[in-house]
Design brief:
The strands form 6 sheets. This protein has a 6-stranded antiparallel β-sheet, with no helix packed on it. It has a 5-stranded antiparallel β-sheet with strand order 2-5-8-3-21. It is built from 8 helices and 21 strands. A hairpin with a 3-residue loop joins strand 13 and strand 14. The chain is of the alpha+beta class and 350 residues long. It comes from Hydrogenivirga caldilitoris. Keywords: Hydrolase, Protease, Signal.
């Protein structure tokens, strides 16, 4: 889908790039609008990729508009994971390169019924069982997963045992940049050396996903953005009245047991730290139970691309570990998406 150089409003073409999903979308869904503003000061040609909210049974992209001095822009779906991507190219401008994308998304509470049993994954879920460079499924990871699930029989029992293990054996480390690298190979080494794993949401969600995959449960990380204050705990998201979402990226996870089941072990550990909760407290037990089968409704999903390539393909950083931030290449190097003030970009709720 080609887009004009200047501003546009996405209308009927929205359905071409984003097939509509209507199953389960409730009329009570909330709508949020936010902008991603990018400014590239470096001279030379530039390529830019921005993650776009994905259409699912729990959210719909309702509108997208653009402005800026780009030469070309289009919305593309990456092939392997179906990732929606806003792609732009900039020529050799004398001044600053800019793009402002405004997204409107309708979303609702994500909750599912937990039905026990053993489920045979369909062939379409094979990508969510495979190993990737950051998600090993053999060796130490598989041995650990088999120990955790040794006396569990059903898919739900095994998934919950893994989820509980992640919550109890990891902790949120505020010093880690961004969402964390999510490198399970390194995280397991830390566990063997120190007995606990510090990290952030991509780290904890990736451990959960790798352990699930290694015992035959399809699982995936889901990268997205916190867009309003959380309901479960003020410690989880932006503060009330704040409109700055620039550093509000958050990675959740899902596993498949007849349908995709949402989990968020990272927010359990963030709540434990933010509220200074002690192990065994009723508040912590509530969080642990609630965030297995539910997601707190303050967040929109972008994609589940993991160790993959963008569309059109990036020239550098192959494969891309994940796609939760704007990504840009200028003059043969990658702009640091973990430092938005240097990149530079900002994300703001309208």
């Amino acid at each position: 889908m080609k887009l004009s150089r200047r501003s546009f409003v996405l209308g009927s073409l929205l359905a071409v790039a984003f097939p509509k999903v209507t199953i389960g979308m409730q009329a009570s869904g909330k709508e949020v609008t936010f902008t991603c503003s990018v400014r590239i000061k470096e001279r030379g040609k530039a390529r830019l990729w921005i993650p776009v909210p994905v259409n699912t049974e729990y959210q719909q992209l309702k509108g997208l508009s653009l402005g800026g001095n780009f030469e070309r822009a289009e919305v593309i779906r990456e092939k392997e994971y179906g990732t929606p991507i806003l792609y732009a190219e900039f020529g050799k401008l004398e001044g600053e390169k800019s793009m402002k994308a405004t997204f409107s998304v309708e979303y609702r509470t994500r909750r599912v019924s937990l039905i026990d049993g053993n489920f045979q994954p369909p062939k379409a879920l094979e990508p969510y069982l495979k190993a990737t460079p950051h998600l090993p499924t053999t060796g130490k990871v598989k041995e650990l997963a088999e120990r955790i699930t040794a006396d569990k029989r059903s898919t739900l029992e095994r998934a919950y045992a893994i989820y509980e293990w992640v919550v109890e054996n990891t902790y949120r480390d505020p010093k880690v940049k961004g969402c964390g690298p999510g490198n399970v190979n390194e995280l397991i080494e830390v566990y063997e050396r120190e007995g606990r794993i510090g990290g952030k949401c991509a780290d904890q969600s990736s451990i959960f996903v790798a352990l699930c995959r290694s015992v035959g449960i399809p699982a995936r990380e889901v990268f997205g953005l916190r867009v309003e204050p959380a309901y479960v705990s003020e410690s989880l998201s932006i503060k009330r009245g704040s409109k700055d979402l620039t550093k509000a990226q958050h990675c959740r996870a899902e596993f498949w047991a007849g349908e995709w089941i949402p989990v968020d072990p990272a927010d359990v550990t963030k709540m434990r730290l933010g509220e200074k909760l002690k192990e065994g407290s009723k508040r912590l037990e509530f969080a642990k139970r609630y965030l297995f089968g539910n997601w707190d409704p303050h967040w929109v999903a972008f994609n589940w691309l993991r160790d993959g390539n963008l569309e059109p393909q990036q020239e550098l950083m192959k494969p891309l570990p994940f796609f939760g931030y704007p990504y840009a290449e200028v003059n043969g190097y990658v702009l640091n998406y973990l430092e938005p003030q240097d990149f530079s970009y900002s994300i703001t709720r309208v």
